[in-house]
Amino acid sequence: MISREKLFSSNEPKSVILVRLSVGCVFLLEGILKFINPEELGVGRFEKIGFPFPGLISGFVGTTEIICGCLILIGLFTRLAAFPMIINMIVAILSTKLPMLLKTGFWHTAHEARLDFTMLLLCIFILLNGAGSLSVDHKILHGDKK
What we know:
The chain is mostly helical. It has one domain (4-142). It has eight helices and no strands. α2 packs antiparallel against α5 (54-74) and α6 (78-104) runs antiparallel to α7 (106-129). The longest helix is centred in the middle third of the chain and has 27 residues, at 78-104.
């Protein structure tokens, strides 16, 4: 079981908030867009990729991105929220970028995959380092102490 200290702790500087804001905003936006533009970014995209039950999976992924994006933005249960987003990005890379690599080659795929790999690495950073001192996690662990 993960200890409270391990879950909420972070010795990282206040500037970690910039990473959290970037990651949280991207996932929140992408999750919302799966519902606003379902044919291109939601059900239609999952259907085109070949996922079974594209409506169910699209709704699950969109909802998870919205929830985890919000949690990362405010820095609440940040490490826990980063974990499903790491899985999300690995699945996205394997299901969309790997076939692209085989079809169009390295340079085209490298261009198209830049955000996916950036988000994956930033989520790993958040998982390893926590939310930083400007977060709800830090406030839960330390209260009013500095």
